[in-house]
Amino acid sequence: MAKEQTGAVPDATAAPAKPAAATKRKKEFKKKRERRVVPHGIVYVAATFNNTQITISDQDGRVMCWSSAGAIGFKGSRKGTPYAAQQASLAAAGVARDQYGMKSVEVRVKGPGSGRESAVRALAAAGLHIVLIRDVTPIPHNGCRPPKRRRV
């Protein structure tokens, strides 16, 4: 009449189960991401009076690397200098060249800052072939609406 139980009640003679943390698991190795080679890219230089930002993307607009005068370590009014823009441009171009194998770039410059020219020169000095330089600074057509006439 007594039915045998299969696995419902553990045997008293069996060794107690070890906690989950004590058991050794095999180490999981992540697959090494293959290096993406992008031979041609677009460099966006945003030069304001206070800072210069360099963004390097592929042809589709996916950002690969970036740098700015502030990210390099310049503080205050020194961020707006041509030298700071040059250093930021060299840093971004070095990463694009070494990690992504970039060879030629199209440069799009925006803004009135003093770091415009030096950033573009630094890209060429870093070993990137500049195919095109385009100024994409937004220009207002007829500007904002003027304030209404003052009544005294």
Keywords:
3 helices, 152 residues, single chain, five-stranded mixed sheet, alpha/beta
Layout of SSEs?
Layout lengths: L39 E8 L4 E6 L5 E6 H4 L9 H19 L3 E7 L5 H10 L3 E7 L17
Parallel strand pairs: 1-4, 4-5
Antiparallel strand pairs: 1-2, 2-3
Helix pairs in contact: 2-3
Overview of the structural elements:
The N and C termini lie far apart (109 Å). Helix 2 (82-100) packs parallel to helix 3. The model has no long low-confidence stretch (mean pLDDT 87). The protein is built from three helices and five strands, in the order βββααβαβ. 26% of the residues are buried. It is elongated. The protein is α/β, with parallel strands linked by helices and 152 residues long. A five-stranded mixed beta sheet has the order 3-2-1-4-5. It has helices at residues 69-72, 82-100, 116-125; strands at residues 40-47, 52-57, 63-68, 104-110, 129-135. 22% of the residues lie in helices and 22% in strands.
Total of DSSP H or I helical runs spanning 4+ residues: 3
- Poorly predicted residue ranges: none
Q: What is the radius of gyration computed over CA atoms, rounded to a whole number of angstroms?
A: 30 Å
Q: Indicate the percent of residues in helices.
A: 10-25%
Instruction: Identify the strand order in the major beta sheet.
Output: 3-2-1-4-5
Give the overall pLDDT as a whole number: 87
Secondary-structure element series: EEEHHEHE
Specify the biggest β-sheet: 5 strands, mixed
Assign an overall shape: elongated
Strand content: 15-25%
What's the N-to-C terminus distance? 109 Å
Work out the number of β strands.
5
| Structural class assignment | alpha/beta
